[in-house]
Amino acid sequence: MSQTSYAVDDGVAVITMNNPPVNGLGMDLRRSIVESIRQAEDDGQVKAIVLTGAGNAFSGGADIKEFGTPKSIAEPNLLTVIKVVEDASKPVVAAINATCMGGGFELALGCHYRVASRAAQIALPEVKLGLIPGAGGTQRLPRLAPLDMALNFMVSGNPVPAAKFEGTKVFDKLVDGDVVAAAKAYARDIATPSKVRPRVRDLKVDAPNSDAFLQFSRNTINTVAKNFPAPARVVDAVSGAISMPFDQGLANERRIFIELLQSPESRAMRHAFFGERAASKISDVPDDTPVREIRQAAVIGAGTMGGGIAMNFANAGIPVTIIETKQEALDKGLATIRKNYESTAKKGRISAEDVEKRTALIKSTLSYDDIKDADIVIEAVFEDMGIKEAVFKQLDQTMKPGAILATNTSTLDVDQIAAFTKRPQDVVGLHFFSPANVMKLLEVVRGKKTGKDVLATVMKLAKKIRKTGVISGVCDGFIGNRMLEQYSRQAGYMLEEGATPQQVDRAIEKFGFAMGPFRMSDMAGNDVGWYIRKRRYQERPEMKYPKVADKICELGRFGQKTGAGFYRYAPGKRDAIPDPEVDKLIDEHRKGLGITARKLSDDEIVHRLVFALVNEGAKILEEGIAQRASDIDMIYLTGYGFPLHRGGPMLYADQVGLYNVADRMARFGRNPHGDPPFWKPAPLLAKLAAEGKSFNG
User: Fold this and answer.
1) Active-site residues: which are they?
2) Confidence label for 195 from pLDDT (cuts 50, 70 and 90)
3) pLDDT at residue number 192
4) Would the pTM count as exceeding 0.90?
5) Which residues contact 411 (CB under 8 A, 6 or more apart)?
6) What b/e readout covers 210-240, taking b as 16+ CB neighbours within 10 angstroms?
């Protein structure tokens, strides 16, 4: 079935690409474009051709449904399609009506002329997948736009309106109205049989002193994108556009593209891209599941977390009411919210008008009666089951039928919380991460009785408030914090064995983590973990914990908020300063355990931490707490600072090879001080390793 429509209007053939939602250039559409171009060439009444897209896109580029399949490279591939367009016997005008990205923009650059809506969003976003444009983008764009503009555009990968290219050769005409009508009129004007059809490939790159500029660009990129090879390889490809004949430059671009496609960094970035999309799917909740309307929201608690959650709703234009027990707490919370908005405005990210609009959407109250008509209420009180019980019993009495009752608990049993109400089907966990108005992750915890319509509603809401929603089952700590506990335990054991907090943090940060375990604990508050551990000592006496963190807390060293934790902090500053007092405490504790300090390599530190995540992740996957391995990776990429270029703990394990991971765990298990029983590979990990398989297929 053809994915293009063909119509002739007064000598102009209009070929319209039609592969919803963004006219992705899949095999069927590529073939249809070639067939339509051939039809127009053979049509005696056609003098010129207009190529455009149906709906809200010219073309968004490659068809993501075909990524990694034989169809994605089947002939005619995109390079072939562009050559057919470029070599067409009649002039081809691209009518860029809306979104034009990636291969779609490369296709437009292969047309003889380009007419675009000023507002059309244009991008070559391949660097965001660890790649470079692979169908001539790095060769054609520098021939049409100034070198610095072309290079910055490709290195950033960010979309810009077509109007940004005004004054360059990228677009022959920019319009505000009907693009296709303007393109047809333009096509008639240039459809002179004797007129030579201009090809971008025949132009020269106008770039005096390009060597110095390209070297400056390389130096800058290597500083800011050192873990991501694609931006620097864009420079290499563009250099070829300047120094090589077109076909040679095109071949050079393709060689670089293939090299990057096979790189671990690109695999990681593509894994994240598809993982985010997969996370929004719940295996037993159909896409057409009815959802509840969320017109107004409420938040219980005006602390740091509650205020941040409320900001998410206001940012999305949803009125929200915050409830507290004391006016003083409300006033403090609202003042913090305003301060956060004003700080964002000072950075130019929102306007002064936005500040007023958003703060106006946030109301406050001391009475539950004022929130009874909210469509969703999110509890963000202290992490204590007794307090949660009182809140949910009150909500059960107060809230209207059909309201969603959500808890922001980070570790507690959502099923137990749901049992405090007479409507467990309406209860769900919505675990935001601090600061809630900034962090992208939203861990959606599905109770045994949580309704499918509730799940569908909160996953839709996650998108509206610009969060990556990931489903978790109920267990202590859910996915993220359950895994983090094992990571933190190994970090603590390594202190007992001879490492320092700064050595552990430095090693994992060099690996790519945003923050090491001890700096992270100081920032979050060491007392938070201490409170959870004291609960664990009662509930799970069989689980062993290293004791340095407890001893730190017993001294009142709760981290940044007290000026001292695993590090010390100057007043008003967040720089972690190594503290000899902590080293002394660790030494004395080590002697008490009868352990002789040894030197730990950075490699051991990194892999004990990361493989602790992997082993617990494998258990979570096997238990069905996580739907898929990529969900675990999305949680760690978006909520825990795992380096994007590594792809998440489960993909990293896949790239190392699960056989090698299991072998390394066996070696860790021979260390008597690192909790040897933990290092027995999880059954799923052992099974996949034995079969030569991976977590991610």
Assistant:
1) 106, 126
2) confident
3) 81
4) yes
5) 383, 476, 477, 478, 481, 532
6) beeebeebeeebeeeeeebbbbbbbbbbbbb
